[in-house]
Amino acid sequence: MKSKLRLRWATLVAVCLALTSLVPSPAQGQNKTVSNLRYRIFDVGTFGGPTSQTNGSRILNNEGVVAGEADTAKPCPFSGGFASLISPAFRWKDGKLTNIGLLPDGCFSLPNGISQNGFIAGSSDNGIIDPNTGVPEIRADFRANSHMFNLGTFGGTNSLANDVNDHGIAVGGAENKDPDPFNFGGNLLGLPSPTAWQAFLWQGHGLKKLGTLGGPDSFALIVNQSDEISGIAFTNSVVNPTTELPTTAAFFWKNGKMTDIGSFGGVFSTMSYLNDKSQVVGFSTFPGDFVAHAFVWAPYTGMKDLGTLGGTFSTAIWVNNSGIAVGGSTTLNDELFIAARWRNGAIENLGTAGGNTCSNAFQISERGEVAGQSFNCDNTGLAHATLWEPTGPAIDLNRFLPPDSNLQLAEAHFVNDRGELVVVGILPNGNPHIVVMVPCTGTESEGCRGAREELSVAQQQLAFSNHHTRLSPENLAAIKRRAIRKFRGLPGVNEN
Questions:
Q1: For residue 255, which phi and psi values (nearest 5 degrees)?
Q2: Which of 10, 33, 414, 423 is the most exposed place for a label (fewest CB within 10 A)?
């Protein structure tokens, strides 16, 4: 997909603030649990094809159920699809991979959220090629037990479901028939779409519109256990010269009312997560739209600036119910992008693992474990799936693989409240497989693996060679695109 994100500030990172504050050091403290961590490691595998993947906000619940998508070896019968192979959704638990199906005539089904009691919401193609885009129509779907529901649209071509709670409320967005000259779908969702999007909730009886903030488009991203919803929307139809988009804002929806949660004075803000305490996190630009900071917002406090590690950009990606947020930030002069944790009113530099120079934190459990990734700032070499305990340094999860493993653990997507991890493993041929890491308990020993030495000789050499690598404007722009575009799992959404 050739649609290009138009946020001009994302490519103008050379315009920096004259900051004089010191960058906080990585979180210190002896981690007493690292040497005792042991895992049983499962390659989820596929249905006979090359790859498996997960996507979305919550893809692992506290019962140890993982929702994702895996390839078969059977070709998709039509061209122009998101998948060249038939790739149904899966449910994985206790080492068993189960095919949970497709929409009729479809080739691809991708869950985006799973509730604690097992409801699954996501998106599937229906086998019909949209002549306006050349790709299949996408439909939001919902699964309960063995039943799958096509949630439909508001008269347009596409819909997407992003999250679901224990009450069976699924949320997302669906297209109507109104032309959208601002390409909300392509720019912010990663899905080419010629008509406008409307945020919805669904609870068994058709899509319900949540409204907009005054502009033509809106999309719901997260629903919490109190049935509160947060997402993003255009607030008007006036294109801003700095972003080439209408003013974009995060919203909070409750009891039929959609509230604009504001900004730091710029014309672009977006949210990433909403916890069960009504706290929303994301990032917002300042006047001029060259600088953006992570925020936390709640109805009782308003929007608070979470600050940065000295640079011009930070984003909060997750907040747990204790109010601890995680994400990433650039350092002084935007030289590095480093995973960050915000707690007790302060920002913490979480550091990196595996000899890499940059990192990002994607999610934090209620127990305080943080899942994320370490990577090279110049986008070379290997990325390393990373775990941060509540105290202590970053842990390269590759340390738990046997020495003869053919997997490279590249990204930790999620850690649940039992410490179970969903990780992206890369095979030597480049194909991704989902890997689940289950902590061993008590005296359990069969199949359990502890951590090897922290850095191999090769990693030590890598760390030394990368000591002076810095974040380029292009790579920082790619990090920002990932923070903005919401559907990384659909092939093509990471393209410029």
A1: 50, 40
A2: 33
Output the six-digit token pair for 264.
């730091």
Q: What is the CA radius of gyration of the chain?
A: 21
408-436 pLDDT tens trace: 999 999 999 999 999 999 999 999 999 99
CA dihedral for 394, 400, 406, 407, sign (positive or negative): negative
The alpha carbon of residue 113 and the mean position of all alpha carbons in its chain are separated, in whole angstroms, by: 11
48-96: pLDDT as tens digits:
999 999 997 899 999 999 999 999 999 998 866 566 899 999 999 999 9
- Residue keyed to tokens 């997260």: 222
334-347 b/e (C-beta count within 10 Å ≥ 16 → b): bbbbbbbbbbeeeb
Strand-by-strand arrangement of the 229-239 sheet = 218-223, 229-239, 246-254, 257-260
Return the H-helix or E-strand segment holding 361. Answer: strand 358-364
The residues with which 374 forms a beta bridge, in sequence order, are 359, 384
How many Cβ atoms sit within 10 Å of the Cβ of residue 256?
8
The percent helix, strand, coil of the chain (3-state, each to 5) is: 10, 45, 45
- Report the C-alpha gap between 485 and 496 in whole angstroms: 11
Domain boundaries, the chain: 15-44+325-480
pLDDT of residue 443: 75
How many helical (H) and strand (E) elements, i.e. helices and strands, does the chain have? Answer: 3, 33
Is residue 140 left, alpha or beta, with left meaning phi > 0 and alpha meaning psi from -120 to 50? beta
